[in-house]
Specification:
Distance between the termini: 40 Å
Largest sheet: 7 strands, mixed
Shape: globular
Radius of gyration: 13 Å
Order of helices and strands: EEEEEEEEEHEE
Length: 126
């Protein structure tokens, strides 16, 4: 069982930057593909970004590509999502996900993962 704990959410203004983090409770963190998803009120959960075990491959949704950056530190068992040029439509609960078998691409396509965090709220005011 892997526990994922997100942190770093908050209230920011449009155009601001914010970084959210996700700490994983596993000694084999480097073997998990990691991802970020988000869910806004009244909407379904949607893929945001994913990263391969090595960090070499990163994938993004069209809505965040060029503004968001996913990264990981396998020594700290942590994955990050740096969010720049935030927009009000980025307002959502952001969830961290981990999967031991799916690729970064499969995580994006399937929008499913073996483990999920509890989420962290990001609110962008206009």
């Amino acid at each position: 069982q892997v526990q994922l704990v997100e942190s770093g959410g908050g209230l920011v203004q449009a155009g601001d930057s914010l970084r959210v983090s996700c700490a994983a409770s596993t000694r084999t963190f480097s073997t998990y593909v990691m991802g970020w998803f988000r869910q806004a009120p009244g909407n379904e959960r949607e893929f945001v970004a994913s990263i391969s075990t090595s960090g070499i491959t990163t994938l993004y949704s069209d809505s965040v590509r060029g503004r968001f950056t996913i990264s990981r530190d396998n020594g700290k068992n942590t994955v990050y999502l740096q969010m720049n040029s935030l927009k009000p439509e980025d307002t959502a609960v952001y969830y961290c996900a981990a999967d031991p078998t799916r690729s970064a691409q499969a995580l994006r396509i399937a929008q499913r993962a073996a483990y999920w965090g509890q989420g962290t709220q990001v609110t962008v005011s206009s």
